Amino acid sequence: MSIYFDTNSIAVQERAKFWQEVVCSTFVPLECAFSDRQNFHGR
């Protein structure tokens, strides 16, 4: 079974926070550093 997450439906200002929460709760706890939070896309 594949797990798929995408930030397209998330408000731009919330994408980085959403992505970090998804990665940490699904895979491994970590802290993400985003060079450009306003243009971040995750899939």
Automatic annotation (TrEMBL):
Annotated protein name in UniProt: Uncharacterized protein
